[in-house]
Every structure is written in structure tokens, then in C-alpha cells.
Write a structure and sequence with these properties.
It comes from Kitasatospora gansuensis. InterPro entries: NAD(P)-bd_dom_sf. This is NADP oxidoreductase. The chain is of the alpha/beta class. It has one domain (about 35-180): Rossmann fold (3-Layer(aba) Sandwich), CATH 3.40.50. The chain is built from 7 helices and 11 strands. The chain has helices at about 5-15, 25-30, 45-50, 50-55, 85-90, 130-145, 155-170, and strands at about 1-5, 20-25, 35, 60, 65-70, 75, 95-100, 115, 120, 125-130, 145-150. The strands form 4 sheets. It has a 5-stranded mixed β-sheet, sandwiched between helices. A two-stranded parallel sheet has the order 1-2. A two-stranded antiparallel sheet has the order 5-6. Strand 1, helix 1 (about 5-15) and strand 2 (about 20-25) form a beta-alpha-beta unit. Helix 3 packs parallel to helix 5. The longest helix has 16 residues, at about 155-170. It is globular and about 55 Å long. The chain starts with a strand and ends in a 21-residue tail after the last helix.
Length: about 190
């Protein structure tokens, strides 16, 4: 179920992705097992506050990336560390079960039938303070053919947001973020011991 402030835009998006239907933001927030909060990062806390009664008890999947353009590339709009957009969403809708997930990759990755790179399924990191919401996020990630990676509580969500901004900055400058994090196992002379 797709919800939006514009019924026309919600209908168009719903048709484009084969959703169950479309409606108001509140109707969409009350539908299904989880809510994907896919709004501009700056609007996310306000949206969560407006929808707080509808989000109560719900697993809220936060995919926002709090970034703004800068002269040397994008920068974080949060302080980083324990200050994250996910923490702000959780504060705005305290009865919601917030999971920071799906924000590291470009949106085009999520349209692939099976995100596999160099022979390995995409790893999708997530952070949450709620065990059952974490299980649901892991189930969704697995259903997409990806590998879930639990990275701790919401106090670590700012690290995922910063990693997303770092990766976007690397791509913006023509680099590859994956080259900054090679596996030690790939180093010449590496052994399995």
C-alpha cells in the first residue's frame, strides 16, 4: 500500500511497483506488517510525528539518508554518532519500532531481481533497538535474495547514515566505495588461519 500527500502521485507509484493499492499516509501506515518511511530525510521526523498514532507498535523501516550538498561532496545533516535520522524518527514516534535499513545502496539496486555482486549476495546492514522489528527486517532482506547484517541498536544508526554519505561522496567523485573496504582475505599472501 502506497501512501502520499498527493493521491495522484501515490496512485502512480502504486501502479508502477505493483502495490496492493494507494491511499493517505495514515492508511498506508496502518497497512501490512511494516512501514517503509521513504521521504526526504529532513521531513522524516515531522512525518513520523504526524503519523505517530498510526505508527504505534509498527515496524518502521527508515531508509533516509541525511545529507546535503557540499563543496567537496555531500555531507551529513545530522551530527553523526548517536544523532541519527533514525533516532529522531524514534523520538518523534516513540511507540514505533524503528529499524534503520535500506539506506546504504542507490535506489537502482533495489530494482534488481537478485542483487548479487562479484558472486555474492548484497549484504544489507540494519540497526534497531527492537528484536522483533529486527527479525522482520532480516526476513524482508532475505526474501529479496540479500544477506541481512545486524549492526546493533539505534545508537549505531548514525554510522550507517555516515557510511551512506561516504559511499555517495566516493561515487560523486568518480571513485568506488567498495575499493576503500577490501576484505583482508583478498590481500596477497593472506591465509585462512
Amino acid at each position: 500500500m502506497v501512501g502520499g500527500r498527493s493521491e495522484e502521485a501515490a496512485a502512480r507509484t502504486s501502479a508502477g511497483i505493483g502495490a496492493a493499492g494507494y491511499g493517505s499516509l495514515g492508511e498506508a501506515a496502518r497497512y501490512g506488517r511494516a512501514v517503509l518511511l521513504a521521504v526526504p530525510a529532513g521531513a522524516a521526523p515531522e512525518s513520523a510525528a504526524e503519523l505517530a498514532p498510526d505508527l504505534a507498535g509498527r515496524a518502521v523501516l527508515d531508509c533516509t539518508v541525511p545529507m546535503a550538498p557540499g563543496t567537496g561532496g555531500p555531507g551529513l545533516t545530522t551530527a553523526g554518532g548517536t544523532d541519527s535520522m533514525a533516532a529522531r524518527i524514534a523520538s518523534a514516534a516513540p511507540a514505533a519500532r524503528v529499524v534503520k535499513v535500506f539506506g546504504i545502496c542507490h535506489e537502482s539496486i533495489w530494482t534488481l531481481p537478485r542483487p548479487v555482486f562479484e558472486g555474492a549476495p548484497l549484504v544489507v546492514p540494519f540497526c534497531t533497538d527492537d528484536t522483533s522489528a529486527g527479525f522482520l527486517a532480516a526476513e524482508l532482506v532475505t526474501s529479496m535474495g540479500c544477506t541481512p547484517l545486524a549492526c546493533g541498536g539505534l545508537d549505531r544508526a548514525g554510522l550507517l547514515e555516515a557510511a551512506a554519505v561516504f559511499a555517495i561522496g566516493a561515487w560523486w567523485s568518480g571513485g568506488e566505495a567498495r575499493h576503500a573496504f577490501p576484505s583482508p582475505a583478498l590481500a596477497p599472501g593472506a591465509t585462512d588461519d
